[in-house]
Amino acid sequence: MADTQAPQEFHVFDPERQEITVHVVQPPKRRYWLHALLFLAAVFTTLCIGARMQDTFDHNLGLFSQDKDFWPWPWIFEDWHRLRLGVPFSASLLGILTAHELGHYVFCMRRRVFATLPFFIPAPTLIGTLGAFIRIKSPIRSRADLFDIGIAGPIAGFIVAVPLTVFGLLLSKPLTGAAAQAAAAAVARADGASMLPGFPFIFKLAHWIITIFGGNTAIAHVAPGGIYLHPIAMAAWVGMFATTLNLLPGGQLDGGHIIFAVHPRLHRPVSLISILALLPLSWYYWAGWLLWAVVLRFTGSRHPDVPTYPPLDGKRRLLALFALIMLVLTFIPGPFGDEGLKHVLEDYHKPDQQQSQPLK
User: Fold this and answer.
1) Stated pTM of the model
2) Which of 31, 63, 121, 203 qualifies as a cystine partner to 130, CB 3.0-4.6 A?
3) 3-state helix, strand, coil in the chain (%, to 5)
């Protein structure tokens, strides 16, 4: 492997001046303490969320049916030993995220592209983190290098998430008792919203395989909508959803890099098509798609300069098809139930309509 800590010389083509300029880039300064600190903080926050999730699962309570499910920190501080309950969720989720980012990082090193180590983002969210990212610190020499770096992350994360999906589903159980009542109440809410996750096709496929070959498994004869997901399966679900977001074809996302590497002139129109596709999805299925449409809009107007020649070889173009298959397998139109902008606005106006009704 090439020495990635030595200065690198890059030949960059300027399309406006029609000339090639030479840039010498120094390797980035490693801030190991910061990467370690952020990772340890992400371990703690995901352990807290995972511990509450595991306790809820073990006691067959409704998913996110109590305030401490959303804010478990006081519950954790009451007894620090509860943190060990969060190990399955935390290890699974951080394993997927780490695999994804290391996929990018390893191929940056192999292609002599300067990049930082992964930055993990701890946060008091429903999963304890906002994900992770690396920063590329030097130009990319070819479309092949861009393609390899861009697709390596989703493939690595997907490879880890698939067995975790199967294992997590095997540990899951049918919705019964208080959990079933909470799920039914969520589905029956007036605004149609639900905290129950929608299932990507890869989950349905794994459940179908378990149904055929795992006759004695608890969920073998239960429809996907009637399954109480084990925290490991929840971590796999988050990993699959993260794969979808990264593979959205456009902007500076992994999917955008893959599109540019396959055909640079298609990057802008494909980004626009993706934006147009996300708008109705945000209206009918999940309001969050609007945010991602905005992200694609502001990052899809241009792409960092990468030499046009040589083009991709046939093997990489075939691998791009696999990226599309991963997107199809992991895509969820309504990841959090029926929470499209249409239903959000209808729910917002319902109190006003009820107040405006005349008294009888």
Assistant:
1) 0.88
2) 121
3) 60, 10, 30
